[in-house]
Amino acid sequence: MKEAMQRLREASIQAILESDSPDSLENLRVKYLGKKGELTAILRQMGKLSAEERPAMGQLANQLRGDIEASIEKRRAELNEAMLAKKLEREALDVTMPGEKPQLGHKHPMYNVLDQIKEIFIGMGFEIVDGPEVELADYNFTKLNIDEGHPSREWTDTFYFTEDSRILLRTQTSPMQIHAMEAKELPIRMIAPGRVYRKDEVDATHSPMFHQIEGMVIDKGVTMSDLKATLNLVVEKIYGKGTVTRFRPHHFPFTEPSCEMDIQCHKCGGKGCPTCKGEGWIEVLGAGMVHPKVLAGCGIDPDVYSGWAFGMGLERLAMGEYKITDLRLIFENDVRFLEQF
Ligand code: DAH
Question: What average pLDDT score do residues 127-145 get?
Answer without folding.
Answer: 98
